[in-house]
């Protein structure tokens, strides 16, 4: 059985920071890669602040926080992954960008290294085919915020070997998370169900059925969701929501997955939710 001792995270965004956080806290050595040094530093600050929240609520000790932070190495060069057991790709949710990142990554890895992708919607088989190791490639899909959410979806591509799957399953258990196994269909399970709900909430707003506040209140108090769907859309990122709806629409060829024109318009305006300070809510 392959044991994962060191993990690389490619992409220092929202998901990259959460993945680095939970891996370091589980005692793994973490290399966090991004092209931009300032993004890496900002990401490490996010990890540090989130670890502090966990110290404050007594989920971890100050000592664990310090040790976790010391295990994260910032990398602006992919050569830093030359001895890494598993690299998880967590770049922007766009197939072209992901393929490019994977093709740059492969030549830097040792032959036996595994690659995981944190894609939330794109075909694992197709992404695997753009690497030199489809048998050691797997979907490892974390939920946001990663340090809090219990679930990880594991998705095999057509060529993923059993050994890769078992190593990934052990890795997820080591992080203290629960696996749900999904077949390789567009957006897998969580997003196949969650994103059409969010898209429908945006249609509900678009058609004037309710206001932002009333739609979110309806779902928080009427369906016991921790966040309203529009607040959640802002939290995920409206660009990511749109990408996932497009993958569902293209991949399943059913008009029920048509992205709401209002979602398209917001993304075109650069209103991407919390990360740009403006989405369905104004965070400025
Ligand atoms: N890191 C560490 N801890 C965090 C954290 C983070 N990033 N975010 C929140 N927390 C902790 C807080 O410190 C707090 O801890 P204590 O209870 O121990 O004090 C706890 O989580 C709850 O946080 P808050 O009190 O700040 O706020 P809340 O009660 O409103 O919970 C939430 C926040 C956990 C995000 C909750 O609103 C929630 O579960 N929302 C829904 C999230 C969701 O649906 N995620 C899935 C998105 S879909 C996805 O990820 C898939 C995809 O591909 C798009």
From TrEMBL:
Marked site (Important for catalytic activity) residue numbers = 141
Kinase recorded as keyword: no
Enumerate the Gene Ontology biological process terms.
fatty acid metabolic process
Q: Which residues form a coiled coil?
A: none
Its Enzyme Commission number(s) read 1.1.1.157
Q: What are the recorded GO MF terms, alphabetically?
A: 3-hydroxybutyryl-CoA dehydrogenase activity; NAD+ binding
- The residues that the entry says bind NAD(+) are 11-16, 34, 93, 98, 120, 144, 275
Ranges where the 3-hydroxyacyl-CoA dehydrogenase NAD binding domain occurs: 7-184
Q: What keywords are annotated for this sequence in UniProt?
A: NAD, Oxidoreductase
Q: Where is the 3-hydroxyacyl-CoA dehydrogenase C-terminal domain?
A: 188-283
Which major enzyme category is it? oxidoreductase
The record ties this protein, via InterPro entries, to: 3-OHacyl-CoA_DH, 3-OHacyl-CoA_DH_CS, 3-OHacyl-CoA_DH_NAD-bd, 3HC_DH_C, 6-PGluconate_DH-like_C_sf, 6PGD_dom2, NAD(P)-bd_dom_sf
Q: Which SUPFAM superfamilies does the record cross-reference, listed alphabetically?
A: 6-phosphogluconate dehydrogenase C-terminal domain-like, NAD(P)-binding Rossmann-fold domains
Protein name per UniProt: 3-hydroxybutyryl-CoA dehydrogenase
UniProt source species: Pleomorphomonas diazotrophica
**Taxonomic lineage of this organism?**
Bacteria, Pseudomonadati, Pseudomonadota, Alphaproteobacteria, Hyphomicrobiales
